[in-house]
Write a structure and sequence with these properties.
Elements lengths: L10 E2 L2 E2 L3 H27 L3 H27 L35 E10 L5 H11 L3 E9 L4 E10 L4 H10 L3 E7 L8 H14 L4 H9 L3 E5 L1 H5 L13 E3 L2 E5 L5 E5 L7 H17 L7 E5 L5 E7 L4 H10 L2 H8 L10 H5 L4 E7 L5 E10 L2 E8 L8 H15 L4 E7 L3 H8 L5 E6 L2 E7 L2 H7 L2 H8 L3 E4 L1
Antiparallel strand pairs: 1-2, 3-5, 3-6, 4-5, 7-10, 8-9, 9-10, 11-12, 11-19, 12-13, 13-14, 14-15, 16-18, 17-18
Helix pairs in contact: 1-2, 5-6, 5-8, 6-8
Length: about 475
């Protein structure tokens, strides 16, 4: 295959080769053209044979231009003398990423992109080799590979490093030509560089420390999916979910149902990608570990000093705090309870068991030195979304407690990898609106029939550059004592 020298950078001893002969010819042609033009102008203006001279001048200029074109065409394809460092492009295939991608712009040379890809191939010799060769032909490096055996094929899951200019569509087309089908691809990040056994062990350790980690661990194990927990009462009654789920669970293509430790049902749904038996076995093992360990919540707590000097303790709460939370409800006004639960005040206590259960999220409690709970903050897993909710006893409002709880809940959501959190309140609840604004994050507002939904986006750029949570805590609370 031939390539024009103009398409290749010619270098000698690390510097561009300078062709002085070509420059001399161009300058001579330029001076000749200027001299001829000046002579023609004088003769035309002062002599009787002006038109004839114009014709002669035009012919001379055309001849000069033709000579210049011929010279450039002849010497433009000749290899430079003594340029021994210039090499023709390699015609072989390179298995790893290249510094010069044929599809990437020059500015992006050397840059790469991480991709997670899953495809299905026939279970026959050579199918994986053909797939790897196709990726190597696009200068794609395979960083890790997992195989999920099926009855009539194999699902191969790759972590790839590709040139930055290589689009996802080009990768999937190459895979399809190599025999892969049902291909799915998405961007990956540095966290995906951890191998599968290490990631599973890490998720198991997090689940062992905190029962509220189970939904998050399942989501990180299975990728983008929607996880819903159905209480035991609804699972046995007339809910929309199946009434009976065997102990070993049920796998139905893009949906898996697992028996929750407390007797309910955990439903995991991923419409865009069917679950494999290997993924189902891993998820079931994680749920079984959670069931064997029983209810557990980290007992660390922070003691804060309010501006007026009162000390409060912020800690995790669970169903053991049901009585203390019910007593706080009884001390709250009907207006405060209505702002929080958006319904009849008499129904407020019915929600507490659900809210305090670590199976459905995380709860923070604010406690006085006497042991009385005066505030609750909830971070609730709502399918693939996350809700935050606050309740502060009337006598303890407007002291910064709500903002402290909200900041901690959002920090938990960021740590869990949530993309956003939302709060459902009433448009007249100025305290909740002020607390959300105090986060310093991008907010979206939706109002319908007096109900206000405020959504805070937790993208990495916003949290890194525009979230003054630590600064606001220092302003509100002067002293912090951490006790494990």
């Amino acid at each position: 295959m031939t390539r024009k020298v103009s398409d290749v950078t010619r270098v000698k001893h690390g510097r561009p080769v300078h062709h002085w002969r070509r420059d001399a010819v161009e300058l001579a042609a330029l001076f000749t053209a200027v001299a001829v033009a000046d002579a023609v102008a004088n003769l035309v203006g002062h002599g009787p044979e002006g038109p004839a001279l114009l014709v002669v001048s035009a012919i001379a200029l055309i001849a000069t231009a033709g000579f210049h074109t011929w010279w450039a065409h002849r010497h433009g394809h000749a290899p430079p003398a003594g340029d021994t460092d210039a090499r023709p492009p390699s015609e072989g295939q390179q298995a790893g990423p290249s510094d010069r991608s044929p599809t990437a712009p020059a500015a992006a040379a050397g840059e790469s992109t991480l991709w997670r890809m899953r495809t299905t191939v026939k279970d026959e010799p050579g199918s994986l080799a053909a797939l790897c060769a196709a990726l190597a032909g696009r200068q794609v490096d395979i960083l890790s590979l997992q195989t999920h055996p099926l009855a009539d094929g194999t699902v191969d899951e790759f972590l790839l490093r590709a040139p930055a200019g290589l689009a996802a569509g080009e990768v999937t087309r190459a895979v399809a030509l190599a025999g892969g089908f049902d291909t799915w691809i998405e961007r990956a990040d540095a966290h995906d560089l951890v191998d599968a056994p290490t990631r599973v062990l890490g998720l198991a350790a997090r689940t062992a420390l905190d029962a509220a980690e189970l939904p998050l661990a399942l989501r990180q194990l299975l990728g983008r999916c929607t996880i819903r927990s159905l209480p035991a009462a609804r699972a046995a009654g007339g809910g929309r979910e199946p009434q009976a789920v065997p102990v070993e669970g049920v796998l139905e293509d893009t949906v898996m149902r697992l028996r929750a430790p407390e007797g309910g049902v955990i439903t995991v749904e991923r419409p865009y990608l069917p679950f494999t038996p290997t993924e189902f076995a891993r998820a079931r093992a994680l749920v079984e570990l959670d069931a064997r360990l029983g209810p557990r919540v980290p007992r660390s707590q922070d003691v804060l000093t309010l501006p007026e000097g009162n000390a409060i303790t912020v800690r995790r709460a669970d169903t053991d705090d049901l009585d203390a939370a019910t007593a706080m409800h009884e001390r709250c006004s009907a207006r405060t309870l209505g702002m929080r639960y958006h319904g009849p005040v008499g129904d407020a206590n019915r929600y507490l068991s659900h809210l305090l259960s670590p199976r459905f999220g995380r709860t923070l409690a604010v406690q006085t030195p006497s042991g009385r709970i005066v505030g609750l903050g909830h971070l609730l897993w709502d399918g693939d979304e996350t809700e935050v909710a606050l309740l502060v006893e009337d006598a303890w409002q407007r002291r910064g407690i709500g903002g402290e709880l909200l900041g901690r809940l959002v920090a938990m959501a960021v740590e869990a990898g949530c993309e956003s959190v939302y709060a459902v309140t009433q448009s007249s609840n100025t305290g909740m609106v002020a607390a959300m604004r105090g986060l310093g994050l991008p907010l979206d507002y939706q109002i319908e029939e007096g109900t206000l939904v405020i959504t805070a986006r937790l993208d990495a750029a916003s949290v890194a550059s525009g979230w003054p949570y630590e600064e606001s805590r220092e302003r509100e609370f002067g002293e912090r004592i951490v006790r494990d």
